[in-house]
Design goal:
Layout (H helix, E strand, L loop, with lengths): L2 H11 L1 H12 L4 H8 L3 H29 L1 H21 L3 H29 L5 H26 L5 H23 L4 H4 L2 H6 L10 H19 L2 H15 L6 H22 L5 H25 L3 H16 L2 H12 L5 H30 L1 H22 L8 H7 L3
Helix pairs in contact: 1-7, 2-6, 2-7, 2-8, 4-5, 4-6, 4-17, 5-6, 5-8, 6-7, 6-16, 6-17, 7-8, 7-13, 7-16, 11-16, 11-17, 11-18, 12-15, 12-17, 13-15, 14-15, 14-16, 14-18, 17-18
């Protein structure tokens, strides 16, 4: 398969990643209008917003089994259709329970796409370009986040602005659905029959036993470290963190855009280096950069530091994360799991990642308010150090190797 068809197919596949970003970030501009319209308490808003994460957990957990049974392409079609239905439902909701239900359905689509996207691309990509092509999934997510901020900004203040904000993914979801139906082929690995035949014989307990269990543990721990080093806490609570340093809260939109832009630029660095420098190198550099920036943040909150220094350290932390763990985790986990368990193992590791996301986002404000920024960033710094040691001593280099070669080297 030459480059043109591969890149066209990957472009269609990562439209799901773009919708992932749109759905995750698009709610930020709509929250205040929804809260005022439905007279919601903070707990009510929290339930509505977190319904998407709950859906992500469920969607990620079951997608692997369905992908083995029905094929990768059919799952893409189902995910695209679910993006359209859930986004339209959110926009047309007339009470909080209805909105919460459709947010949960949006989460099912996001969770399913976080499994099927990297898995499908890893199965169709040539070995020498697999890292870059799988990383396009994360790149599409960052573009979706930036697009969500832009659409929220343009639509804010219009009549029923929140409905239009939440309807935007339905438009792009329709494009994703049509493109997937007409131009997205089935994964050759699944189409040959070997994957679905072997996968059907794999008991769920095999994921946690013997050599297979060790590889699943490696991928799952890497997925967990991606989240427990604090990225979603920093992105979600940046304005609150800045307020703790004395920076005014009125710059929240500017901060969000700046964070999104740094995230976007740094992901381009990963696209450029992942197939030349290798997966382990990027992960090690990323962990080292996060340790240094989190150490500075811990010291700044403990001893007092300049506001611009805190801002710079946060942006450095985000840059190192976005150029390493953000895309490379998806690359490595889609490569190290053998064909017969790839779908189910990715479902499990991605589900754990979403669970860590939920726990990090839920408990970070309490730690910040009760113990202060030094404790919060100190905890994240310890996890970043553990992540560095884990990558150095446990994660294999997979750059330039076929999936079959990786499987042989891992004795699977």
């Amino acid at each position: 398969m030459n480059n043109a068809p591969i890149y066209r197919i990957v472009f269609i596949a990562v439209l799901g990643g773009f919708l992932f970003g749109l759905n995750m970030a698009g709610i930020s501009g709509a929250v205040n209008s929804i809260k005022e319209l439905f007279s919601l308490t903070d707990n009510g808003i929290g339930l509505m917003v977190s319904a998407l994460t709950a859906g992500c957990l469920v969607g990620a957990l079951f997608t692997g089994g369905f992908a083995d049974r029905f094929g990768r392409r059919r799952i893409f079609l189902a995910v695209a259709l679910l993006f359209v239905i859930s986004s339209a439902g959110c926009a047309l909701s007339y009470n909080p329970p209805m909105l919460t239900l459709f947010r949960f359905l949006s989460g099912l689509a996001v969770g399913a796409d976080s499994v099927i996207g990297p898995m499908y691309i890893s199965e169709i990509a040539p070995a020498g370009k697999r890292g870059r092509l799988v990383s396009f999934q994360q790149f599409a997510i960052t573009i979706g986040i930036l697009a969500a901020y832009l659409f929220d900004y343009l639509l804010l203040g219009r009549p029923d602005d929140w409905r239009w904000m939440l309807a935007v993914p339905a438009l792009f979801g329709t494009v994703f659905l049509v493109a997937s139906f007409f131009a997205l082929p089935e994964s050759p690995r699944w189409q040959r029959g070997a994957v679905r035949n072997d996968a059907g014989k794999v008991a769920f307990r095999e994921l946690f036993s013997g050599r297979t269990g060790r590889v699943v543990a490696l991928g799952t721990l890497l997925a967990a470290f991606q989240q427990i080093t604090g990225i979603n806490a920093v992105i979600n609570y940046a304005p609150i963190i800045f307020e703790h340093t004395g920076v005014g809260g009125g710059t929240a939109l500017l901060q969000s855009c700046l964070v999104g832009f740094i995230n976007f630029l740094s992901t381009i660095v990963a696209l450029w280096l992942v197939d030349t420098k290798g997966r382990r190198t990027l992960l090690l550099w990323g962990a080292a950069g996060m340790i240094l920036s989190l150490g500075y943040l811990t010291a700044s909150f403990l001893l007092g530091g300049p506001e611009l220094g805190v801002l710079a350290a946060l942006l450095v932390y985000i840059a190192f994360f976005a150029a390493s763990f953000a895309p490379v985790m998806w690359v490595v986990t889609s490569e190290i799991f053998p064909d017969r368990i790839r779908a189910r193992a990715l479902s499990f590791s991605t589900c754990v990642s979403w669970m860590c996301t939920f726990l990090t986002v839920q408990f970070s404000p309490a730690i910040l308010n009760a113990l202060g920024g030094a404790a919060l960033f100190g905890i994240f710094g310890v996890f970043a150090l553990l992540a560095l040691l884990f990558v150095k001593y446990r994660i294999p280099e997979t750059r330039g190797k076929s999936l079959e070669q990786i499987e042989r080297e891992l004795n699977l």
